[in-house]
Amino acid sequence: METIRTIMEHRSIRKYKSDPIPEGIMQEILEAGTRASNTGNMQVYSIIVTQSPEVKEQLAPCHFNQPMVKEAPAVLTFCADLNRFSQWCQQRQAKPGYDNLLWFCNGTIDAMLAAQNVCIAAEAHGLGICYLGTTLYTASRVVEVLRLPKGVMPITTVTVGYPAEQPLLTDRLPLRGIVHSERYDNYSTTDIDQIYAAKEQLPLTQRLLAENDKQTLAQIFTDKRYPHADNLAFSRSLIEVLEQQGFMNHDE
Ligand SMILES: Cc1cc2nc3c(=O)[nH]c(=O)nc-3n(C[C@H](O)[C@H](O)[C@H](O)COP(=O)(O)O)c2cc1C
Asked: Which residues, other chains included, contact 17 with Cβ-Cβ below 8 Å and sequence gap of 6+?
């Protein structure tokens, strides 16, 4: 029940106290990350713990200078890692075949499951967390800063520290908008209207509409926050990094 309460009380924390995270707690939350389910129990992921001001300084631009990167005592970068497992195979007369999209996806799943376990464990200790999706947007720079070898791809970053704010819980779509019974039940226009109605009526939405001079909340996502041209540009650079890091060999 304690775990469910922790999960239900989650909110992203974007302001942190400068108090360090005690080493024992850090070890425990990282250990909790490694207890997550993972592909074939191969654990094809790595976690880079950044606590030094110098490396945080270098990481900050990778995250579009979101202040949490320098403010939080710890910045964790979760990576898909086929390097370690492939090295082991090579040292044990086994030929690794993990230089492809399937294993990038498997590594990504492992990295994200470990990340979420770390987040829940951190929150259970009264720490606050915030995911940073910017890791994928600037992956080539993250690879340089963290010196990630071939076979390793940064997937997501989580800032961790004691909260210096207590934001309200954010909204979620109603369960019936997310869950399908037995098979996928495609949405009618009325379903869409109903599922998004509460979100569209929030005071926050009204404020965003006024601030952004838009007619609908959806337009704020498509035109302001995640516009198509940006998505294409970031996708192209992501494919380049995947090639560079050795995940796009589909010819042999
Ligand atoms: C993959 C991913 C990337 C995210 N990237 C960012 C980010 O770059 N900056 C940020 O402030 N929040 C980021 N978030 C946090 C989300 O904005 C947040 O989880 C969402 O708005 C719901 O709010 P809550 O976490 O407080 O419930 C990210 C979350 C996820 C899962």
From this structure: 161, 162, 163, 164
User: What would the 3-class secondary structure string for 137-158 be?
Assistant: HCHHHHHHHHCCCCCEEEEEEE
Whether residue 159 contacts residue 69, with contact meaning beta carbons closer than 8 Å, is answered with yes
For ligand 1, atom 28, the nearest C-alpha belongs to 131
Residue owning the nearest CA to atom 3 of ligand 1: 133
CB of residue 170 inside a 6 A radius of ligand 1: yes
Give the Cα separation of 101 and 155 in Å (integer). Answer: 14
Which CATH fold would you assign to the domain 2-167?
Answer: NADH Oxidase (3.40.109)
62-71: per-residue pLDDT in tens? 999 999 999 9
Ligand 1 touching residue 199 (CB < 6 A)? no
Q: Containing H/E element for 27?
A: helix 23-34
Domain positions in the chain are 2-167
pLDDT tens per residue, range 170-187:
999 999 999 999 999 999
Contact 65 CB / ligand 1 (< 6 Å): no
Read off the pLDDT band of 100 (50, 70, 90).
very high
Q: Are 58 and 138 in contact, with CB atoms under 8 Å apart?
A: no
